[in-house]
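Hello K.,

You asked for the raw outputs rather than the summary table, so here they are, unedited. I folded two proteins back to back in the same session to keep the settings identical. This is the first:
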Amino acid sequence: ASLAWGKQGHREAGFQPVAPRQLHEHPFEKHMRLRIAACLATVAAATRPPVVVSGATGRVGSAVVRSLVSRRGSAEGVYVLARDAEKAQAMHEGVQCLCAAHDDAEALAEAFGSVPSGFRLFVACSNSPQQAALEGGLCRAAHSAGCAYAVKLSTARQVLEMKQGGPYVAHLEVEALLAELGLPHAVLRPNLFMDEVTMGGFLGVAGPLREADECSHPFALSPISMIDVRDVADCAAVLLDGAQTGRGTGGEWFDLTGPDAIALGGELADCISELRPRPVSITACDADAFVAQRGLPPAALASLSGFLGVLGSHCADVTDAVRQITGRPARSLRDFVRDRSTVFLPSSFERLLGAPAPSFAAAARVATASTADDLEDLAADEVLIRVMVAGVNGGADTFSVTRAAAEATDIKLGAEGVGVVVAAGAEADYAAGDRVAFIGGGYSEYTRVKARLCNAVDEGGDAAEQTAARVSGLTAAVALGHTAPVTSGDVVVVTACCGATGSFAVQLAKAAGASVVGTVGSAAKVDAAKQLGVDRVLNYRHESLADVLAAEYPGGVDVAYEGVGGALLGAVCANLKPEGRVLIVGSISQYPHNDETPHHGVEGVGDIMDDVFRPGRTVELPNGGRLIGNVWGDAFSTGVLPAFRDRLYADLAAGEIRALVDGTRFCGVSEAPAAVAHMLAGRNTGKTVLHVSEH
C-alpha cells in the first residue's frame, strides 16, 4: 500500500514514473508484472477509508468524487450522498449512491448506517438561506453514525473575516459546529473559482465573448488569486484519503489559492486571446451596475455587492497550500483556459471557400462558418487549429480551383500554415495550446485537419518563417538531401532562387559544399540572392543562362532545382552533365496567369506540367541526365520524411538556416486572392504569407 501511494504521490508532485521496459519482455515477466500491479492496487484500495461525498452533483462535490476515484484507481469505498439518486448515479457511474436529503434526519441515519464505521465525510451543499441548517444536520447525523473525519468546504478567508456578502454566516456556523461536536476535521477556504469568472454564472465572461471580442467586468483590473476547482477537489481527496497520506488529522484550516493573482483584463484576456483570431479586451466597470444588469432581487444585490467588493479588493494573497497538501503546484490560469478551450471560442469564424473557376480570384469567396459545427464534426484523429499564418502557393492555390471537378463546391482553400491547437480528438497526440505547422485549409480562421498532417513547432518561433519551412523548405530539404543528394563540389542551379522554395534550396546546397548559380527576375532581388549565398547571380531578363553556364561552368551542371520552365529549363538541360539531375518543382511559366507559354525546347520531352510534374515521372535525357517530376522520391514510403522535417525545423530554430519571408503584408482571409496575385506576378522575395490572425 505504501508503495502504491508513493507512485501516486510522485505523479501529483509532477514526476512521471518511468514506464516498464517492454522491449523483449518475456510473456511470463509481463504476466507477473501485471499481477503485482493489480495486487498493489487492491491492497491500496483496501487500506483507504470509506468516504462519503455530499453535494456530489455540484461543481466541487462532483470533482471530489472524480479525484477520489482517480487516486484510488476504482470507485471502491467511495459513496455519494444525494437527494436525486438517479442524477448522481448518471454522473458517477460505478460509485455507490446514498439517497437522502440533508434535512431528513431519518433518511440520513439510514444512509450513513449502510457505510462502514470510521468513514470520512466531505461537507458541501449549495448556497441558500438554509445552508447552515442543511450542513449542520448532515454533520450531526454523520457524527452519530461514527464518522471519523470531515472536510468542510468553506469560502475565502477574507470573506469570513470581513463578514460581507455571500453565505459567510452559514460557513462560520458549520465550522463552529464541527469543533463543538469534537469531530476531527479540516476546513478548505478557497478563493474565487476560476470558472466563476470565466465560464458560467452571472460573473462569467465566456458568454459575452462568444459573440464579440470585448466585454466589461468589475474584476478587469482587480488582481485575485483565483483557483481551479480541480485543485480544491484534489486537496479534499488527499485529506479524505488521510490514512494513506498522513494528512487529515483534524483541526486544520487551509486557505487555497491559485499560483498567481490574476486580473481579468490582463492575464485572462491574454490567455483567451491565444485561442482566437483577434485579441479580446476585458474592460473595467462598476460592480453595482454590473450586478444590477443581471436582474437579481434587491436582497441578493446587497449581498453580492459586499461579496464582490471583498473579492475585488482584498483577495490577491497567494498561498502554497495546494502544494503543501497535494505535493504539486496549483494549476495556472493558462492551464485552466487551455483545458476548457472550446468554451472561449467565438460562435462563428471566417474561411475562404472556392469553386471551379478560371482563376483563384474568380473562385474564392469569404464564408461564415459555425464553430460549434466544426467542433461537433471533429473526428478522433483530428485537431481544430486557430490559424496564425497561412502559406501562399501561387501554383497550388490556382490549380486547386482551375483543375477542380466541375461539380465541386465549397473547396477549402490554402495549402499549409502554422497555428495553435484549440481542440483535439481523443486519438490526436496534441492538446489545446500546442503550436503546430499543418497541411490543408490554411485560408481559414479555424481549420480542422488530421493530426498526422501536423508537427509541433517552437511556440516562441516566428510563425511566418515556420510556415515557409512546412512545404517550401521541406520540399527543398528532401529533394536535395534524399531524392538527388548534393555533394561537395557539385554545381547546382536554382531558378527563382529568391522564391519561397528556391531560397531554401540555395542555403541547403551551399551547406552541402556546392557552387550555386541562381536566377532572379529583377535587379531588386540580386542583393537578396547574394545574401543567401548564391555564388553566381543571374538576372535572366538581361543575361542568358545558357551562355553563362557554357562559358563559366564548362564542366556542366550536377543538379538543377527548377520551377520556372521555358527557356531556363532548356538552358539547364543543355548544360547538364551526364547523370546530372533536374528536379522539377513546378513550371510557373505555364501557370494560367501567363498570356503565353514559352516552350522549353528539350528534345524528347513534352509538356512539363502534364507529362512530367503532375504524374511524377522521371524522364531520361539523351545525354544520360534525368528530369525528375517527383522531387519527394520515396521519402513517404520509406518513412524518412519526418527526420528531414524535424532537422529542418531544428536548424531553423537554431539559426542554421533562415526562412526568407516576403515583406509585403497581407492580413485576413479576404486578402488571400491579392496575396496569390502578388506571388504569381513575381513581386515576392521569399515566401508570401497571409496573416490570418491579428496576432
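The second followed immediately with the same parameters:
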Amino acid sequence: AQAVDGTSTSGFRSVVTNMSGLAEARGTVLGMSLDKMSDSVTGQTVVDPKGYLTSLSKTKIATNAEVSDVHKARLLLKSVRDTNPKHAPGWIAAARVEEAAGKTLQARKVIQEGCEACPDSEDVWLEAASLHPPEVAKTILATAVRRLPKSVNIFLRAADLEHNDSAKKAVLRKALESNPTSVTLWKAAIELEDADDARILLSVAVENVPHSVEMWLALARLETYENARRVLNRARKALPAERAVWIAASKLEESQGHDDMVDKIIDKAVRSLAQHDALVSRAQWLKEAETAESAGAPLTAGSIARRTVGMGVDDEDRQRTWSDDAAGALSRGAVATARAILAHGLATFPSKRTLWLQAVELERARGTPASLDEVLAAASQRLPRTEIFWLVRAKEKWLAGEIDAAREILTEAFAANPDSEPVWLAAAKLEWETGEVERARVLLRRARDRAPTDRVFMKSALLERECKQYDDALDLIEEGIAKYSKFAKLYMMGGQICAEDLTRDKYSLDRARKFYQRGLQACPASAVLWILASRLEERAAAFDHGKAGNKASNGTGGVTKSRSLLELARLKNQKTPELWVEAVRLERRAGNDKLASALMARALQDCPSSGLLLAENIITSPRVEQKSKSADAIKRCPDDPRVISAVAALFASERKIDKARKWMDRAVVLDPDLGDSWARYYAFELEMGTKEQQQKVKERCTVAEPKHGEVWCSVMKDMSNRRKATSEGLELVAQKFLSRRQLN
C-alpha cells in the first residue's frame, strides 16, 4: 500500500527511526553536560546560563570508533571483574574508563562497588576519593582508615584534603598513633610545626624510627651545640655504619670554631665505618667532601678529601688520578676540596713540578695573594732549581708594590741558580721597570759575563735603545751578533734602530740595509727579517732628502725592489703565509688591486689551510663576496681564531650584534694569547656594546695578558708604548682597528 503523497511505508519508518536516533544522541550530550555540572552534595545543578550554550558547542562528540572502543573496554573489564572480583586494578580500570567517557556518576558507582569487593586495597579507596568532591572524599577516606589503619598513603591523602594546618595536624597525629614507625608520616607532621614543636616531635620520632638518619640530623640542627653533640652521639650508636652522622658532627665542630676536632672526627669516622663493614667508595667520599664544602664547611671537606683520596688507587696511578680529581673538583667550584687533594698529592710527591704548577694556578685563580705566596714559597723551597716559581713569586710581589720583597726573592733565586738567564733578566727587568736604570745596566753587564745568551744581549741593547743611547745599543748588537750570528732578532733590532731612531738619511738607510742583508744571509728562514727588509726598500725614498723631485720614481723603484725581495723570500721559504700576505698588502699599498687579487689566489693555492691568508682574504674582498669567502674559510679552518674574528667582523658590519659578539668571544677563547682578537673584540664593544660589556672584555684581556698578534705586537713593541699596561695597549690597538675600519 502507498500513502497519499506516494511515500512508501518502509521509507517513512526509516525516517522516523533516524529522527529517533538523533533525539537520543542529543539527549546523551545533554546528559553528559549536566553530569559534569552536577553538585552531588546539594543535589542541585550549577549551570551558568550565559556559558551553557558555549560549553555545549565545545563538548567533544565521540566518534563511532571511540564509542566502539569504550564499549569493548567495558565488556573486557566486566569480564575481569566477574572472573576475579577481588582484583582491585580491574575495578580501578573500569572506573577510569567511565570517567574518560564522561560518565562520572557511573565511574563513582563502579568504584563504590570496588570498595565493597576489595575493602583491603588502598588503591581502590584512593581512586574512590579522587572521583568524588572533597567533602565526600573525606568521608570515604575516614571509612578507609578504619578498614586500613596501617595505610600511610590514605592518611596522607586525607591530610591533603584538609584546608587548615590544625586539621592536617589532627589527621597526621591520628596516623602516627597507628603507624609510629612511618618516617614519611613523621616528616609530614614535622613540616607543619614551628621550630620548638618540631624539636619536640623530632625527639619522639628518633625514639620510634632510630634508623632514620634524616630525623637525627634534623633534630641536631634544631638543638643547641651541647644538645646537638648528645644527639649525634646517640645517632652514632644507633647507626654506626652511617657516614652522614660523622660528617654532621664534624660540621658542628667546625661551625663552633673547633678546627682541631675536624680531622679527629673524620679520621675516626673512616676507621669506624671500616670496622662495621660499611662500604664507602673513594668517589662517594669525594662527593661528600664537595657537598660539605657547598654547605659551608670547607675544613670538613678538606679533611674528608685528605683522608680518603688515596683509597684504592694504585701506586703508579696516584699522581695522575689526584691531578684529575683536583681539576674535576675545581671545575665544580669545590676549591677547598681541590686544594686538599693537591696538598695530599704534594705531600706524597714533593718534587713533582706539574703538581706544584697546578697548585699555583689554583691559588692564582681562586685563592688570595697570601695563599698564592705561601704555595710559591713552598714550591721554591722544594724545587729551588726551577726558576718559574721564583720568578712568579717575585712578579707577584712587584705587582703588589713590594719592590724590596721582590728583590729579596730574586736574590735567593740567584743563590740557587747563579747561571740562570731567566733570573738575571727578571732581576734586570725589575730594576728597569721601577726606574733604576743604572742597576739594570749593572745586572745586564754581569749577566753578559756570567750567563751570556742571545736574549741577554738583546735585552741589553733594548735597554740602551729605550734610553736613546743608540750607539751603545748598536755596539751591543754587534757584540751579540759576533757570538750569536743565528739570532735573527739582533739583526732586526739593528735595522730598526738605523731606520727608525737615527736621522733619516742615506747613511742610516745603508746601515739598516746592511743589518738586514747580514741577517738574511745568516737567517734566511726568518720571514720577519724578509718583511722588514722589504718594507725598508718600499719607503727608501723617505731617506733620500736630496732628491725630493724624484719622489714618485723613487717610490715606484722602492715598490719594485720590495716586490723582488718578497719573491726571493718565497723562493727560499716555500709555503710561508706571512710572506704571501706581505706581498698582497704591498700591491694594495701600491694601488695594484688586480695584481693583489691574483697573488691572493696563488697564495691560497700554495697555503690552502692558512688562517692568516683566509682571514686577509675575507677582510679585503669586495662586500658581495665576503659571505662566500667566509663560508669557505670556516670549512678550511673551523678553529682558527683569525678566521673566526674576521667572520665576526663581517657579522658586526651587518649589524648582527648577538652573533658577532658570540663569534668574537669564540675567537678569544680559542687563543687567549692573540692580542689582535682581543683588540677587535674590544673595538666591536666600543661601537656596539655597553660600558659594562666593554669593561668585561678589558678585564678578561688583562687577565689573559696576550703577547702575540701582528697589529698587537706592532703597537706594543713601539718604543713609545713599551711601558704601557695591557689595558692601555688594548685601547691603542682597538683604536687602530677602528681607524682602519676593519670592522666595517
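The radius of gyration is 43 Å.

Happy to rerun anything if the numbers look odd on your end.

Regards,
P.
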